[in-house]
Amino acid sequence: MAKLWAGRTSGVIDPAAEDFNSSIRFDSRMYREDIIGSIAHAHMLGAQGIISHSDMEAIVEGLGDILDGIEHGTIPIDPAAEDIHSFVEGELTRRIGEPGKRLHTARSRNDQVAQDLRLYLRGQCDETVGLLKKLIRALTETAGKNAAVVMPGYTHMQRAQPVTFGHHLMAYAMMFLRDIGRIEDARARMNVTPIGSCALAGTTYPTDRRAEAAELGFDGVSRNSLDGVSDRDFCVELAAALALVMTHLSRFSEEIILWSSWEFKFIKLSDAYSTGSSIMPQKKNPDMAELCRGKTGRVYGDLMALLTVLKGTPLAYNKDMQEDKEAIFDAFDTVKACLGVFSPMVATMQVNAKSMRDAAAGGFINATDLADYLVGKGMPFRTAYKLVGNIVEECSEKGMTLEDVPIEEYRKYSELFDEDLYKAIDIDECVKRRTSEGGPGGGWVQRQIEYIMGSIGDD
Length: 459
Prior knowledge:
Layout: H1 15-21, H2 24-27, H3 31-47, H4 53-71, H5 84-96, H6 98-101, H7 109-145, E1 150-155, E2 158-164, H8 165-190, E3 192-193, H9 209-215, E4 220-221, H10 225-230, H11 233-259, E5 267-268, H12 287-310, H13 324-348, E6 350-351, H14 353-361, H15 367-376, H16 381-398, H17 407-413, H18 421-424, H19 427-432, H20 444-456
Parallel strand pairs: 3-4
Antiparallel strand pairs: 1-2, 5-6
Helix pairs in contact: 3-4, 3-7, 3-9, 4-5, 7-8, 7-13, 7-20, 8-11, 8-20, 11-12, 11-13, 12-13, 15-16
């Protein structure tokens, strides 16, 4: 296939260099965006009288036929083409002749590819947000069913204070809701088109950039032609947002792996999202969670690759920027794959409420409540803190819980202790009394669910 840039050079390069230079193997996924962008460009050229109406009609019809042929498999994308833009324009010219050669008027591959990428990533953002909403719905449904299931909350991976499983799950729902916000914010900033910036300096043709932008659903146009073709901030910003999605999935994966172990037995994963061992018949491995945890590093790498590509490139376009696509495509592909298995894995896991409650009974996670009991009787908190710490140390040495200690023993520490302390340190009561906004008690888990569901809507 003849090169679009043949003229100043022969257009013939070493085969190894040609393969090295080619991007068709990864940018071919943008065929739809390239074609609809070219249709909008043809409409603008025709409306502005830059090309004739008949040429415009021939171009639009030809591009429509190519799009239909690619999607139905009758037009295979040529792997020998330099890129998807060259392939589409070459196929169009082969089909309709001279009018096809007019399509690239008032346009460069620089602004064309930058627009294609924005169009493509806009769709990727919407798909990813949809998958995040699906995961959030699975979390809220499971949280609603387990809003009163008591479990130990942890700090430093040590049992700390009692919470509920529903409350714990809603913490992740809040993280994923913020992830949606970050992706949507980045999408909004990305939704301007560089088309009309041409190679870097605009054009002498009387183009209507805003009409072309409006046809493609952009909110506006880039305000500086140099920036229009060299900006890849949106790729970095989206990769950063996706890296945070993976951070949250990885943290959640780690907990799922722990919870499903024999040591915890808090949950049981569905067989559909677990695997066995090739040698140990008793094993049920949380491989999907482990893979999500492992793939997090891959998305981090994509982000770092994008930052590194851009850090030394002067204005405007440089061939280095071809490296943007594989990284951001991989980041989206990886996140969507992880979300695709995570939602049903959460929705189908079985919750072992007894194991959670039994774990909450140990570890002195009601010690703060015992200190608060003394505070309620008039003792300064720091004094109460130290006194309860001494009681916990003695209980630990004797293999007792705070509930096991007789009232007579408590009164050796302080006369403020009375029989009502046992209700104060009852684990279930401890949770119920945590009614501060955002806590596990007082119906706040249900209110968090309502807030989340109101935020993501019904779509």
